[in-house]
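ok so I'm stuck.
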Amino acid sequence: MPSAESLFAKRVLVVLVAASLGACAGGKRAARTDEPPTLKTLASRRVDVGPDPGVQGGPDQAIAAYKKFLEVSPKAPQRAEAMRRLGDLEMDSVDERQVAGTATGTASDYRAAIARYQDYLRQFPNDPGNDRVLYQLSRAQEQGGDLEAALKTLDRLVGSYPKTAYRDEAQFRRGELLFATRDYTRAEQAYTTVLAGETDRLRDRALYMQGWSQFKQGKLEEGLRAFFGVLDLKIAHREGEGGLETLEGLSRADRELVEDTFRVTSLSLANLQGAASIAPYVDSDERRSYEFRVYEQLGELYLKQERVKDAADTFGAFARLRPLHAQAPQLQARVIEIYQRNGFANLALDAKKDYVTRYGVDSEFRRANEAGWERAQPLVKTHLAELAQHYHASAQKSKSSADYQEAVKWYRASLASFPDDADAPKANFLLAELLFEDGQFADAAQEYEKTAYGYPAGARSADAGYAALLAFANQEKRVDAAQREPLQRAGVDSALRFASTFPADPRASMVLTNSAEKLFALKDGERAVSVAQQVLALNPPAPAAQRRVAWTVVAHTAFERNDFAAAEKAYGEVLALVPEKDAGRGELTERLAASVYRQGEAARSAGNAPEAVKHFERVAAVAPNSAVRATAQYDAAAALIGMKDWPAATKLLEDFRTRFPKHALQDDVTTKLAVAYTEQRQWSAAAAEYERIAAAKSDPAIVGAAVWQAAELHEKANARPAATKAYERYLKQHAPTLDTGLEARLRLAQLAKADGNKARELALMKEIAEADRRAGAQRTDRSRFLGASATLALAEPALEAYRKVELVEPLARQLKLKKQKMEDALKAYAAAADYGVAEVTTASTFHTAALYQDFGRAMLKSERPKKLSKLELEQYNVLLEEQAFPFEEKATELHETNARRAATGLYDEWVQKSFKALAELRPVRYGKNERSEGAIDAIR
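replied:
not stuck anymore, here's the structure
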């Protein structure tokens, strides 16, 4: 590109050429009147120049004009300037053509300019402006590829003109040429000279090349000072993140300079001690402003050299050296990236831990550099997630609690650092899953619930809510009974929250069902029923199995609350949902039956026997095969017995006996049937029931009583053989005492009497009497009574024998015989009276008196001798009367003895008969007032 100076020269040259041409034209016009013009006159002539209309043309026209000028003006004073400017124009022309692509930049292109400058120097060797010509000549030589000539020209320039304005540029170009020829020492000197000058324009390039010159000489430390100087000039305090491409405000040339400076700086450091060599050069605020880039670029160089570990160490060195620097996270991130890309998994893992620790939410870095911390957070988030996932995967393989705990730590750190992040619900879910896998069910439940309810609804919300329930369930299995109830209640609360939050979830009905069941188990009936009703109210309806559970909860709760009518309805609903062959149907049927039965019990307790009977009988209708059906039927019969509805009770009891032959209540049924039959005067049926009782029981006392009762009932039914058999059995097997044995014999004697079996009757009476006599100290009032009664009965044969003797001829013999028989009878009655039993004594007294009275009357009625005269007969009758009178007196005395017993309160039938007998014997005295106090007093 042409310089500003060359363009200026071009414009001046155009003006000069135009003036010359104008002067020539004027000369021709003046030739008609004046002398021909000369260069001298041209130089002194005044030319009025108007506004520049512009020159049409380019460098070629200018060059042609200058050449023409030099041809026509060999002696002109402007010749030196014209030659110099012509050389410049020729240089600029080549430059322009190179830019346009019409020139190659070879020596031939610059030959004209070089020749022009050399010709100029020959013609004007002492011109004070030759420093500029030398500068341009060296440039043309350099551009034309003759570097040696260019260098010599520059040496001449700086040697001949030490104070030239081109000194710095010349020295700079000298340095470049020396560098190109590998004369690094002289090149360094040239650049040092430039840096010692006052031209700042070349300072950055000079420093750069000085550094390279020193680098090429192996003077790495000196070179680094130069390179850092370049960086001071170009990027100190310049904004931009990591990477040179982020540097702002650099021109293309400066950017290239900076990039190459960092490249050579990194090479130098790499050839020294790497990152350890950086610190001595970072000795100012300017350098500290870009210090991180030095580490960064050195690390990048190491990466290109495949020195992976050195690269990672270099990036990490800055992060450690300047932990609070805004770029520290970025360089530490490069460490992680390098380790990951090159397969150093463990190193990458440790680097990630280091990263999240240094730049996490609680880090010092955050407090010192909020903006830098914000920029680091995406990677903090990423690495936290990667750490958690890594240890999660490791734990799933190793099943190691340490791995689980490590993963939990990183999940929790991630959630604490990014609680509102879009991925937080997922991370929280994974944390919960991890805790669940490690058996930390309490913490897992908490995290599942947080995932489900602590974040906006998402794809995993419902799954998390349900998983919390599984965590509660697993936790319950691990605790003892004392701790289980609080956990169960917490689990129920979580389940209800799930169902409320996710009502459309297909698991909601099952969750509600399980909750109802668990609440029932926890004795929280009110809530259990409430939740069960929710299940039953679902639309669309819950599956049959779940509705079955819900109705079961409702039914059981109602049953436990003694709301048996509601329980009956609910159990009916349950059974409608249970298949006929289902294993649980039997128990539910029993519950239904029990609900009806308990309604009967309640009615019975309330005194409403008819209502109780209705419920008891309904059990057979709603649950005919239930276990309680028998009890219900029995209780219905018992209630009917209480109501004295004997026929209805009998019907139920008879059916019970047939339907439930092996039921434990059969014995009680027998007892109740015995009562029912008895109340209905069905003696034989009642007797049969008592015989059943006797056959079924093992207690001797009960068996004996039943046998006795059966005997009595047979007796009432006039079934004397059966009654006799029963009494005999009782006497043989179940007469535990003297009295009971005597009673049995007495009943047998009475039956024998009824059968007309006098001999058996008397034999039994004799047994009674003898048994009492032999009893000794065991005798009782009852045994004495029965013994006395038996002895009294045994007097009957003597009485009958006495009665059979008739007083007929021969009277003496018959009288003696009858008297003997009377004596026998009297002894028998006396024996009975000796017992001292009032009833027997009065009877014996009466019979003894009657015997005396009868004997006296028998004598009076005896057959008279046939051969007695009338007188003898009268005397005989008087004699009989005299002999009979004592007997009548004795009879009266004995009857009076009996009658006197009334005064002591004894007024039985025999006393009454004695009064009647006295009324016959002493009608005047006893005829009208048998029991008057006066009569009794008279007897006394």
